[in-house]
Amino acid sequence: MLRRPKPTDSEADLLREQEQFLTSGAQSAANVVRRPDKRRGEAGGGEHNGENEGSQRDVVTIEDLPDQLPSLTPAPPKKSRFKASRVTFEDEDAGERLDRHDSHISAVLSRIVERDTSSTPISLPAFTGMAFPKVMHRSETSSQVRLSSAGGRKSIFACQIAAQRLKEGKTPLHCAPETAQMPESSEQNLPPETSMDTDQCDAAVSGPRLVSGQGLGIPDSTGETMRIHRENKAKLQAMSQSDILEEQKKLLSQLDPRLVEFVRSRKAQSVTSSASPSRHPEGKNSKENFPLESVSRESDSSSAAVLFQKPQEVEMEGGREEEELPSPPPAVTEKDLPVKLQKEWVHMDKLEPEKLEWMRNLPAPRKKGTKTAMQARFDFAGNLIPPTEDLPTHLGLHHHGEEPERAGYSLQELFLLSRSQVTQQRSLALSTLANILSKARAGEYLSLLKGNVMSTLLDAGLLFLLRFALDDSVEGVMSAAVHALKALLVCSEDEECLDCTFSWFRGLASFPLLPSAQEEEDEEDEGLDEGMKETAKEKEERKSDHDVARQDVIKGLLKMKLLPRLRYILEVLRPSPRVVQDVLDILTRIARHSSSSATQVLDCPRLMETVMSEFLPTSWTAPSSPLPPSVYGLPLSSAMKLLRVLATSGRHACARLLNSLGVRERLSCMLSAEPSELLMEPTEALRIITEAYRLWAVAAGYGQACNLYIDLYPALVKALQSVHRVLNPSDPLLPLQFQRILALLSLLTQVTHTAGCHQELQAGMVSSQGEECPPPPPVSWGHVTGLQAVLLGHLKGFVKSLDNPVQKDSSLVLIPVYLVYLEAYYHQLSRQNCFKPVETLQELEQLTSEVLFPLFSHHVVQDLIKNLRSSSVVCNVQSSHQSPETTPSLPGLACPGWRDRPGLVVPSSPFPLLTGLGLLLQTITGIHKGLSSKFTGFLLSEPVIGYLRSCSQAKPTLSHTRAWLLRHEHHLLYLLLRLAHRLVPIEQDVAKHASLYHQVALVLLPWLLPGSEYLAHELLSTIIFSKDFISEGHSGGPEAVELGELKLHEEAQHHTSPSLQTVGALLREVCVQLPSIRGCFLTHLAHLESSVLVSQDALLGRNPWINSHLLPELTGPSLPSDWAFLPLVSLYERMGVSDGGGLAVEELPQGALQAVTHCLQWLLLLEVWREEGLKVIPPVAKLARLSCVFLCSSDLFLERPVQKLTWGLFRLLTRGSRLDSLDLNIPPPGLASFQDLYSALLAQYEAVSFGDRLFGCWVLLPLQRRYSATMRLAVFGEHVGMLRSLGVTLEQLSIPIERFTSPPEDSLPLLRLYFRSLVTGTLKLSWCPILYVVGLCHVNSFIFSQDAAAQEVEAARHSMLRKIYYLTDEVLRNHLLLFRLPQQHSEVGFDMYEQLPPIRAKRLESILGRQDSSDDKGD
Q1: How many whole angstroms separate alpha carbon 591 and alpha carbon 698?
Q2: 601, 603, 609, 602: which is closest to 571 by C-alpha?
């Protein structure tokens, strides 16, 4: 690596380094390229010459250096342009050389071309009485100098001549006509865009700006140009403003945009250089005349070299009043100047209005609103400034930018200031952007601005701007950039909500905050083998920073080396406490992104070591003030929280923290003393102890750090004994005390779960015989049994304190976490060898009678339960409040303002209490079955029943903003259903609502999120296929269906398909086959077994087997919404399409027929008795998935059980109301379009149908008139051969024929295909009755239509009618001519006229008459 020369190097050093450089053969950092001098006649081969000269390096040798320095006084010698191209000899005679190179004068004169001066006007000089021109003085030329045109500076003499010619009314010869025109101030009150191209000018001196008249080839070209200009002016004056605008739009749409820009630039130049100052205030900034979007695009294109773009301006929503345009200020004249100009002042004789404009007072802001959107402007605190507000100038919000009369800064101006060379401007801009981001996250701009502020800033390159600012050498700018980055990434309300739910059931687990996955097809990988394709990591590394940041902000920042920079800031710069807090919050948000991001934080060199040594020391001195100037050397709760979030990402990360970074010693140091004994401010002491408990709870959730429990057991007992003492209602630190106690109880719950697994792990280690098995934790069941009595006493005291209004709120906060602890205790107790059933049953009865029943029946709890529906996230899909701003690349929880609206986390929410109660009831009723009936009233209470009814009708949406709350509500719903599962078989009152519970279970199953697979498995195993919850099966349901079918048959009064009467019998058989159906679905869901086991370990408290408290990525629900079709779809994926893309006809695998039968049976039951359970699946999706019956195999649909069930489902799907909701024009989920699937169905029908009536009905269904004509064209075009076997009758098809024939067909190609198939005999009544009637109806309606149509359509009508008239097939001819209406009960399917109606007969005669007359003329 060659080093750069230093100032201290000697000449010998420089020469030695030059020799090394030349030896290495490296490329020079700069090349000297000599450009050709055209004035000297050098050749224009610039690139070639530059290459040649660049190849000859300028090498300095010591021998070339002269002994004496050259003189600098004489000028450098001039080089001849001919010398380089000639070769001379010293002894050659100069005269001979001159004679040899001499040429005839014709070689020079032949190149002279005389200019055409025939059209150039000749002007004679003006005659004066003086013999010589008057000598001009500088003091006399002030008025002439201002008349210089925009073409450049003119001499004094030229200016005087120009002024003299203007005085005489002549146009200067040396000026183009457009440079002399004087625009008027009035422009017909046109908009600025219009006035730019349609200026009205003074008649005396006006002229065209673009055309000079040169090239017309006539003597008076200038006069002709002026005449054309006057005609244009006259036309413009005769036109209205709207006409001018319309013509302008036409021109702009037809002209090349570059030409338009050229015209506008010429106009702008002439306006700027014009002598009339009255136009300047109106045209000083042409960008103000364009919409904000176009301004943004121009700025973006002009700054393409910069890594970040100027933001597209967010626009303010204007009012409904008309805009009151302020009158333009008068132009600045010499009278307005504070001093009088003197002629002798050099270079002070020119008045510059554009500069003097800034000396004016600011114009008054607008008084009324406007309908048009305006540029948003903000103050330094991020508040939006209304355009009508007149703020004083001393606030510093006015500046010399766009709209100087308006206070505040736009986003574009803040971006410019953030890259200013002035430190204060950079710092102020970044601080203002931080305040804007904070308010945008809080949703304060939603009702005021159009567009998303955060998305606008990110699209404009805010991320790169902040990353550049982090590298600023000025600490103030760096601090402002850190604060802005924290405002962008971190939402404090989100963190508060996650902290509040930490003590809930599985509250320590959370979803990774990853953006929604976007599948991108890489064209380069198409056609490559799997081994040759790039991995996801390789593709990620190949992407640019901009592409990565556009999809994922956190990944983009990590790719831009954010972590090393933050480490440098903490370790070297040692900033202020606020910056340290912001950096720790940013690191916490990065750790929440994903496990890989958390690993990168841990792996960053010296980052975590700096955090541990500086902000979590093992010893420290008490700070001198509550707000110390530096927090280095002091423990910080935010640093402890960072460790907790990192530990949540995985077992391995937690072990690294405990063992390698000394977290175990920090926990012992923090938790062994009382909060008052720590040498820190009381608030911070409570916070850091709370975070320490939470970190320990996370570690105990993996079965780690449990030896600390034995070491710190006295401190834990002491903390438990002080619970009632610290809950003083008058204590200002009461909320922090609550959080400390909740974190302590969460720790004890996790330790109890871990201790409960000790016995199983001990036995497993003995029986494993060397196989991999987690080691038993150091804490055993005997270490935790003593806590139960203490905590149960606390719970009894809190239940009694519900009667005290002062202590009621604190009791409601703490009771849920005690219930969760008791559930963990009794759940693990039942698995121990020391379990004593009799004593435990008595203990549970006492717990129920003394604690649980009084708690449930208390009026405070009953009032709380009434808030179930109002607090629910599932029931309140369309809530009235507006969610804060979010962006897809930076997902959040949308928690700002959560205290002001109903929800799961607010104190009035019953969800924490009911979830804890439901968990405990599930455990104790599993141990003591007799206790279930005591809680019948809870399950049958009006709030609970109403809540379940609302949930059965809800359609919640899935997103990061809802998922973290939805999983807690799903837990409660599951627990209510589990309680119902115990009570339905034994309680008659509960059994009355069995169908409601079953409906809720059906809708809950596809809602369950990743991490809840075990709940889905339990629902499928217990409730979904339970005959106790399908009460219709044993209470006359099949018989009721049969009676309904019989009544429908009597009303129809015609023979229908025999399968219609079998639905009742099929349902009766389904109820018998429910266990087999359950086994079938569980078998097809076996691929989820690993996820179910992982979820089971987490939900059942098997802590040593848990690998991560970070839930799986939120890609969608655990089960698809169409899970009921799973056996059918999976069989199609295995058998439906072969490797070559064609339809496969292999033999079905063993058990496939039974699986399809069970699937169809279950679908039939759902369609008849649980129609609401399938409402999330669109009807077109149902039809598409049921089509797999015909595509799976060549003969599966011919099997008798499949035939019966598919007929029943077809009848149900084609009933009136359901048929109306069937829209085949929208693509089914998972398919590009229904037309593609229909093409496969047609090909399969032609190949293997054998004229099957069921398959025929399935093919006919999409041919209804209201669906796309593409499918009908496919039948009568590509697959016309299938008409030979499509023998479905009108009686067998349960769809009214009018749906195929009305309205009349308007597709001319399809009508021609109808006609051709009828005439050629491809479509016959005996072969295809339904489509025969359809074709007759549409062709008949078309040929006798009286509607006006295009010439092509009318010619087709006449041609068809003539061909029909001369048909030799009398039957078809009569059918086509005498067709009247389709008639479903008729023998042929339609009615006919006995003879043509008069109007039709007359039309036929007229057409035939025209043909006869044309034939006569031809003869």
Answers
A1: 15
A2: 609
204 against 1365, higher pLDDT: 1365
Question: Interior CA angle at 904 toward 960 and 915, to 5°?
Answer: 110
pLDDT at residue 141 is higher than 70: no
Task: Please provide the average confidence, as pLDDT, over all residues in the chain.
Answer: 82
CA 119 to CA 216: how far, in whole Å? 8
Bigger pLDDT: 139 vs 804:
804
> Which two three-digit tokens encode residue 403?
């709209």
Average pLDDT over residues 688-713: 96
Distance from chain centroid for Cα 657: 35
Distance CA 1295, CA 660 (A): 73
- Residue 717 CB contacts under 8 Å (≥ 6 apart), including other chains: 790
Beta strands in 403-547, from DSSP E residues, in sequence order: 449-450
Residue 1143's DSSP bridge partners are 1137
State the Cα–Cα distance between residues 951 and 1003, nearest whole angstrom: 8
pLDDT digits (tens, 9 = 90+) for 790-836: 999 999 999 999 999 999 999 999 999 999 999 999 999 999 999 99
> What is the residue whose two structure tokens read 């010589």?
132
* Element spanning 937, H or E: helix 936-940
By the 8 A CB rule, do 1233 and 1227 touch?
Answer: yes
Long-range pairs, 266-271, Cβ under 8 A, ≥24: 266/178, 266/209, 266/210, 267/196, 267/197, 267/199, 267/209, 269/150, 270/150, 270/178, 270/179, 270/181, 270/183, 270/209, 271/183
Separate counts of helices (H) and strands (E) for the chain: 67, 5
Angle between helices 1037-1052 and 1063-1072 (to 10 degrees): 170
Q: Tokens in use for 1393?
A: 């006229």
Least confident of 265-279, 658-672, 851-865, 1268-1282: 265-279
pLDDT > 60? residue 1076: yes
Q: Taking a C-beta distance cutoff of 8 angstroms, is the pair 431, 484 a contact?
A: yes
Closest CA to 910 of 849, 863, 959: 863
* Token pair for 766: 């003995």
What is the spatial distance between Cα 1096 and Cα 1106, in angstroms, rounded to a whole number?
Answer: 10
For residue 885, give the 3-state DSSP assignment: coil
Which two tokens mark 150? 């925009």
Q: Which of 1221, 1213, 1216, 1293 is nearest to 1260 (CA)?
A: 1293
If you write DSSP's letter for every residue of 115-156 in order, what string do you get? ---TTS---PPPP-S-SSPPPP-GGG-HHHHTT--TT----H
Taking CA atoms, 904 is separated from 321, 484, 819, 1411, in Å, by: 43, 31, 18, 81
What pLDDT sits at residue 712? 94
- Write out pLDDT tens, residues 841-874: 999 999 999 999 999 999 999 999 999 999 999 9
What tokens appear for 656 in the block?
A: 């690294």
Q: Percent helix, strand, coil in the chain (nearest 5)?
A: 55, 0, 40
Dihedral of the CA atoms 1296, 1300, 1302, 1303 (nearest 10)? 150
Q: Measured between alpha carbons, how far is 3 from 20 in angstroms, rounded to an integer?
A: 10
CA-to-CA distance for 981 and 974, rounded, in angstroms? 10
d(CA 342, CA 1241): 96
| The overall pTM is greater than 0.90 | no
Residues 6+ apart with CB under 8 A from 1204: 1059, 1062, 1066
* CA atoms within a 13 Å half-sphere pointing along the CA-CB vector of 210: 15
Q: Whose structure tokens read 């339960």? A: 865
- Exposed e or buried b per residue across 602-637, where buried means at least 16 C-beta atoms within 10 angstroms of its C-beta: bebeebbebbbbbbbeeeeeebeeeeeeebbebbbb
Alpha carbon distance 452, 450 (integer Å): 7
* Helix, strand, or coil (residue 201): strand
